[in-house]
Amino acid sequence: MRDKNPPLYLLTGIIIGVLAGLLIAYVLLPVRYADTAPATLNTDQKNIYQALVGRAYLYEADSGRAFSRLALLQEPDLNSALVAQSQQMVAAGGDVESARGLSLLAAVNSHPEQVITPLVQNTFSPEVTSTMLATTTLLASATATATPVSATETPSQATATLFATLTPRPSATPKPTQGAPYQLVGQPKEICDPAGVSGQLRIYVKGTNGDGIPGVKIAISLPNGGSSNFYTGLYPEINNGYADFTMSPESTYTIRVGIGGDPINNLAIPQCTGGDGKSYQGSLEITLKQQ
Predict the structure, then answer these.
(1) What CATH number does residue 282 fall under?
(2) Does any domain span residue 59?
């Protein structure tokens, strides 16, 4: 009778072949992706791509081009993705201009009739030019080719070369969404709701027609003597001109909305009284309108 078991050398050959194939596929000749769509990028790379689009939008003010670039990511809910990344960047102290551009794009996505003025630096320097050229180069490269970098590779630095014939000239262009000063409408309104969020400073910024304006800078003083900035437009599901800030107990704040507006002083958490006679912290609501 013949032995039905396969020869040992066949099993050994199969095992060696599989191991050799894995070694070649993952170590010696790993798969390289080239000329693929931005939709194939991983989450971190998509966030970088979106941030570059947001920053470029501030300088180009071309919503058509911006949304064409974002469409390559094939996000099922683009508006939510823009708002979420903008909020995360602000909370993490990231690039303020990119976060602002993303919030403005989210607002324009909901209200296409809105437009902004391109943001141009007041001074022209090689450093500024290099940054803008490097940003444009990276964005164009990501739009045309998405090539993941392996862990063993060292990414090359983006190099921007100035043209020898370029003659820089100063240019002063108003920043986006800036115009006439914003004036306080009425008095700050105390919000007492035991089931609601306490300690919030809720700000609504409106234009002359009463519509909310996104991308407006709000400067607020901090109890330690410093200051912080935040922007409207990060919560378009509430209002395009809405922004909020969490106040600390027993602290007073001063805010200035936009450029040229008067400061609003002595803002603090209101103390409310419930039906059972117990005291609790409420919130404060402020409305400003462009005159």
Answers:
(1) 2.60.40.10
(2) yes
58 and 137 inside one domain: yes
Q: What pLDDT, on the 0 to 100 scale, is given for residue 215?
A: 84
For residue 41, count other CB atoms closer than 10 A to its CB.
Answer: 20
Round the CA-based radius of gyration of the chain to a whole number and report it. 27
Q: Where are the beta strands (DSSP E) in the chain?
A: 182-184, 189-191, 200-206, 217-221, 227-231, 242-246, 253-257, 264-267, 271-273, 279-281, 283-290
Question: Which pTM does this prediction carry?
Answer: 0.49
Instruction: Tell me which residue of 157, 167, 98 sits closest to 129, measured CA to CA.
Output: 167
Task: Verify that 283 and 186 share a domain, yes or no.
Answer: yes
187 and 286 inside one domain:
yes
Half-sphere exposure (CA, 13 Å, Cβ side) for 69? 28
Q: What is the pLDDT of residue 176?
A: 45
Angstrom CA distances, 149 to 104, 131, 138, 146, stand at 31, 22, 14, 10
Query: What value does the mean pLDDT of the chain take?
Result: 77
Going from the C-alpha of 226 to that of each of 88, 93, 177, 223, 231, the distances in angstroms are 22, 15, 26, 7, 17
Specify the number of domains making up the chain.
2
Nearest to 44 by CA among 148, 152, 159: 148
Give, as one character, the DSSP assignment of residue 199. S
CB 182 within 8 A of CB 289: yes
Structural domain boundaries, residue 99: 38-144
Which residue among 144, 170, 199 closes a domain?
Answer: 144
Residue 233 lies in a domain: yes
CA distances in angstroms from 24 to 17, 28, 29, 117, listed in the order given:
11, 5, 5, 54
